[in-house]
């Protein structure tokens, strides 16, 4: 391998030498050789874990009902569901004719009369080591399927169309598109998005089936904005959204006029986010104009930019989304660190649409759930006219469960709870909500689960994220049982920068308050030890949570017996300084703009993990990345591990690069289980060493 010359950069009078910048050249054979050598070294260092890894893999596999199916969802004349089959990596999408309003009873492994396979992921994947579906959308009349596939993990998809009546795949083929898309009402036209060189979805195209020349419908020139398009549940409007991290703008079009012109609901105003939901003869608008935790408003169809408040802003409740149906609406919300559902029934109230929705707010109620910790949300509700609400529910001890909520009887009907084989009994486990105190006095929620018979203090896996207002809610995990049954405690630190406690929680962990995210996690770790929960703590986080992992090992390496950083954003300053890299300009609203602002530069440099590795002792670190990741590029963890190994003491510092995958890792379920078993075997050793 040729000697690599360090790069030098100068920003705002600061000169920095980056001796590992050469690793960012993905096309350099030396880079590939380096990553493969790191994988070989990893195998040498972890070979003694092979038996434990296999044991954990068999535990995950043994607890999973491999031949299974989802709960069917009604859409028009069909019930749609997915199957998984033992020994096969990917799901199979199916449907059967809807002969009644009740979901068909389907037995895993058995086929129904008139069952139709829509999309077989195993057949499409073939022998490819990676496979992913970016879109799978049935036209409103149920006759056509739009589907897109990725065989590399770089999240650039190829779009095709399948006639569901004949089974024929049409010759129409569109390459290099983004996720998702939307049909026109008559199924003649499909709208999709394309990305620019920085992996930003910035264009919306219109494709008429059977034609070759697609029409550019919209292009977003502001590099801070993403675009996306969807069809309302009512199938009356196409909704084209453009949004930055802090601002949004929505355009709508009659779905029966796909060649028409989109109209702006309300022009963008910096700092104002809003979304539009069609509710028959009016729109709902969820927005944050003078409403930090968002307000629900209504608007007339002919003047959607005029908003009348319905549910005003509340300091204690973050409104997340609104789902509208023909005679009711459902608000997904967050309060006290937990999610919830509020039903707005129109009832039999007559009069104008405004009088009906005002009556619905007077009659509104929330659905109660019995556990102290849980996560709930709407799930699989494609029909506009229905008297049932499909919802998904889970907790740290309750496997994912699908319910139908009867609006007339207020009854929750359990349709399916994910089977957990091997004698799992939720009564053997217990979950807790603790509150750690941060250095500034802020109370940080912590969700904890353990076996009832596990001794305290216990080895602990402490998970965190803390960015983008993303909440890590208290849900169930089959692989986690392999830790709990070995006496581990599992805890989630709901640090600032996430959304668990509302919009302000997010605002207090971004830009020049980002360090709160890191110090919150450290304070939670100290709380776990001081309160008797934990002895050896292993920290884990991925993507922006990987930044958290790198930052806390610089801040308080003595607290952790090990750190797992997955696709970690650990070279944050160099990445955010380079506007040519994927997502950089978009990210300036989240992290700040160090390229043009010296104060932001200095602040980011003070916490960016790669910039702050010192010569002191660090805990063992396992960094996991993927060569084709388009979000957090592989070279960030590669450079970080190289600098740790050269500059720090302690360790060992290990790098695992998946050479044929993207941001989400390996795509097949068995492959993903093996990857998780590898990480868990490493965690178990660190916790019990």
Characteristics:
single chain; 41 strands; 20% helix; eight-stranded mixed sheet; 13 helices; alpha+beta
Structural notes for this entry:
There is one protein chain. With about 700 residues, the chain is an alpha+beta fold. Helix content is about 20%, strand content about 35%. The model has no long low-confidence stretch (mean pLDDT about 95).
Condensed summary:
The protein is of the alpha+beta class. 20% of the residues lie in helices and 34% in strands. It contains 13 helices and 41 strands.
* E-strand count: 41
Number of helical segments with 4 or more residues: 13
Low-confidence stretches: none
| Biggest β-sheet: strands ordered side by side in the sheet | 32-33-35-34-36-37-39-41
Family: Belongs to the peptidase S9A family.
Domain Peptidase S9A N-terminal: 3-418
Domain Peptidase S9 prolyl oligopeptidase catalytic: 476-684
Keywords: Hydrolase, Protease, Serine protease
Write the layout of secondary structure elements.
Layout: E1 7-11, E2 14-18, H1 29-46, H2 50-63, E3 68-69, E4 73-75, E5 78-84, E6 92-97, E7 116-120, H3 121-125, E8 132-138, E9 144-150, E10 157-163, E11 169-177, E12 182-183, E13 189-195, E14 201-208, E15 215-219, E16 226-231, E17 237-243, E18 248-254, E19 263-264, E20 274-278, E21 283-287, E22 295-299, E23 308-311, E24 318-324, E25 328-335, E26 338-345, H4 353-362, E27 365-366, E28 375-378, E29 388-394, E30 401-406, E31 411-417, E32 429-437, E33 443-451, E34 458-464, H5 481-484, E35 489-493, H6 503-507, H7 515-530, E36 534-542, H8 544-555, E37 560-566, H9 572-576, H10 584-591, H11 598-607, E38 617-618, E39 621-626, H12 635-647, E40 649-650, E41 653-658, H13 669-688
Parallel strand pairs: 34-35, 34-36, 36-37, 37-39, 38-40, 39-41
Antiparallel strand pairs: 1-2, 3-5, 4-5, 5-6, 6-7, 8-9, 9-10, 10-11, 12-13, 13-14, 14-15, 16-17, 17-18, 18-19, 20-21, 21-22, 22-23, 24-25, 25-26, 26-27, 28-29, 29-30, 30-31, 32-33, 33-35
């Amino acid at each position: 391998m040729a000697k690599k010359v360090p790069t030098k950069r100068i920003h705002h009078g600061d000169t920095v030498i980056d001796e590992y910048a050469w690793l960012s050249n993905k096309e350099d054979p030396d880079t590939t050789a380096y990553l493969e050598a790191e994988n070989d070294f990893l195998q040498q260092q972890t070979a003694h874990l092979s038996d434990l890894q296999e044991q954990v893999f068999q535990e995950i596999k043994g607890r999973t009902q491999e031949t299974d199916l989802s709960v069917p969802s009604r859409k028009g004349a069909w019930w749609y569901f997915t199957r998984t089959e033992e020994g096969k990596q990917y799901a199979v999408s199916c449907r059967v004719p809807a002969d009644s309003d009740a979901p068909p009873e389907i037995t895993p492994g058995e086929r129904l009369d008139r069952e139709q396979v829509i999309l077989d992921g195993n057949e499409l994947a073939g022998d490819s080591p990676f496979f992913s579906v970016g879109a799978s959308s049935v036209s409103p009349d149920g006759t056509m399927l739009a589907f897109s596939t990725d065989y590399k993990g770089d999240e650039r998809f190829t779009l095709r169309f399948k006639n569901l009546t004949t089974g024929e795949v049409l010759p129409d083929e569109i390459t290099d598109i983004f996720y998702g898309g939307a049909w026109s009402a008559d199924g003649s036209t499909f709208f999709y998005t394309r990305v620019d060189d920085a992996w930003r979805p910035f264009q919306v195209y219109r494709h008429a089936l059977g034609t070759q020349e697609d029409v550019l419908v919209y292009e977003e020139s502001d590099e801070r904005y993403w675009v996306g398009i969807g069809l309302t549940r009512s199938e009356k409007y196409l909704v084209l959204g453009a949004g930055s991290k802090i601002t949004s703008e929505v355009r709508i079009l009659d779905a029966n006029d796909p060649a028409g012109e989109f109209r702006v609901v309300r022009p963008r105003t910096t700092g104002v986010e809003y979304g539009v939901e069609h509710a028959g003869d009016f729109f709902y608008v969820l927005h944050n104009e003078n409403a930090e935790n968002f307000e629900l408003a209504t608007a007339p169809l002919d003047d959607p930019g005029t908003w009348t408040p319905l549910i005003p802003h509340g300091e204690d409740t973050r409104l997340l989304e609104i789902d509208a149906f023909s005679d009711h609406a459902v608000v997904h919300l967050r309060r006290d660190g937990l999610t919830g559902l509020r039903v707005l029934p129109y009832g039999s109230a007559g009069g104008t649409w405004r009088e009906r929705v005002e009556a619905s707010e007077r009659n509104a109620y929330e659905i109660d759930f019995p556990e102290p910790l849980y996560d709930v949300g709407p799930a699989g509700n494609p029909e506009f006219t229905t008297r049932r609400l499909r919802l998904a529910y889970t907790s740290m001890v309750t496997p994912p469960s699908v319910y139908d909520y009867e609006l007339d009887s207020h009854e929750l009907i359990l349709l399916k709870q994910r089977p957990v084989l091997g004698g799992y009994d939720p009564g053997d486990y217990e979950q807790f909500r603790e509150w750690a105190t941060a250095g500034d006095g802020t109370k940080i929620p912590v969700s904890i689960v353990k076996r009832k018979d596990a001794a305290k203090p216990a080895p602990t896996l402490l998970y965190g994220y803390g960015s983008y207002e993303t909440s890590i809610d208290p849900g169930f995990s089959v692989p986690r049982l392999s830790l709990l049954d070995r006496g581990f405690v599992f805890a989630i630190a709901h640090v600032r920068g996430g959304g668990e406690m509302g919009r302000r929680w997010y605002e207090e962990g971004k830009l020049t308050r980002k360090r709160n995210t890191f110090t919150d996690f450290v304070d939670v770790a100290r709380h776990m030890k001081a309160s008797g929960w934990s002895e050896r703590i292993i920290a884990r986080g991925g993507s922006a949570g990987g930044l958290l992992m790198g930052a806390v090992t610089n801040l308080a390496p003595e607290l952790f017996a090990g750190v797992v950083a997955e696709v970690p954003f650990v070279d944050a300053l160099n990445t955010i300084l380079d506007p040519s890299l994927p997502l950089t300009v978009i990210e300036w609203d989240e992290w700040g703009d160090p390229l043009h602002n010296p104060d932001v530069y200095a602040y980011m440099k003070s916490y960016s993990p790669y910039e702050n590795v010192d010569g002191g002792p660090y805990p063992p670190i396992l960094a996991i990345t993927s060569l084709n990741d388009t979000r957090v590029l592989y070279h960030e963890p590669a450079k970080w591990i190289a600098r740790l190994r050269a500059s720090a003491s302690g360790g060992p510092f290990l790098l695992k690069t998946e050479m044929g995958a993207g941001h989400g890792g390996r795509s097949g379920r068995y492959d993903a289980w093996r990857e998780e078993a590898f990480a868990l075997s490493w965690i178990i050793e660190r916790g019990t060493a």
